[in-house]
């Protein structure tokens, strides 16, 4: 059984009496908006802070070829930010609104993910209630991934890219191919300058296009050895993949993007949770992969049922291929699993009526109100209990008073996630950190070495003294804290998350 690459029939227009309901649900994007508000109230993303200072540096120096000068551990190291465009945007949000600006920037970027899911889902024929229910269920494992980080922008771009690639692949005529290719190049070029994760988009599109080609007319032409027809059928798929590949090269790194991505991966696997393979992933990360695998199973089931009726929509093989590539990627690195879930959501919502019993659509319509309302009530409750925390560092970070207590010009041995915050708030005072989340700058050997120091390795205090380190900002249970106190280091500040010690 082969599939047709003819365009899927246009989605039916909802009855006027349902339009107000769809509008109230924001077409299905409401769960993402609510999660965005929750994440902005309980801010827990440490990388955002060094991205703010990086964006300011890019604007000041008018180049993306930078030299590390915020730390004592890697001073003088040349580096290139892998999200320079995003860094500039988050810096502008900080300049315009401070903590509140950072909070609203988070709301905007996370909400854009929901908008992308809705736009593509509606194009595939998914109803707003189905999108609302599927999205609400999906944001449970995705909440940890949705925050003020360049990956969030990548999620929205990836969903749109796969949707546009499928549309161009199913199109007809030279004009649609040229316009579609231009759109793919433009979208990918924008994405790669916001975040180098655009390479993941290339892999997903290539996988989707490849499966669509193998499942479509090319399969029949190969069996019948009609090679001229095969060549003709491959032109448009080659245009789609080539356009996305060309867009990936439209960054200051050019062809160096592949080496840069490989370097980041190499320096991340051993220490960074989201780069961990599935067998080492934390439960919440493994749960995201399971959700992605379930989404893929739903799409495969829908394909089989549609094939049995000889009514496979042309876009379905493309989606199955794209999601499958990302699910496989999630086995080796957890960060690909949320990408797989988000790409799958529009398609899962579209095929939901075909893979569920007849009574389910009525249940979906009811849940489309109940689930977002439940999440909304939770978000409002959180917001009302801590209205002053909007956009501000959450309880996992040291307080402003603790950060302010660091002496000017001090070299600090700090926990990995908070270096960016220290640089943002105290960098102008000459405070230098040991690390700030840029593992590709410091290198895994240096990061592991500082971890050993914090864990009280033999001679740790002597090593720090030789490096000119005069401050420790660590969690109270670090063995080095007890060693420092015994050696006469003074505790000058303390909060629920950190203790600050200054050398005698």
From TrEMBL:
Designated name of the protein: Dolichyl-phosphate-mannose-protein mannosyltransferase
Superkingdom of origin organism: Bacteria
UniProt keyword list: Membrane, Transmembrane, Transmembrane helix
Residue intervals passing through the bilayer: 99-120, 127-146, 152-170, 177-196, 202-222, 234-263, 283-303, 315-333, 339-355, 367-386
Key word Phosphoprotein present: no
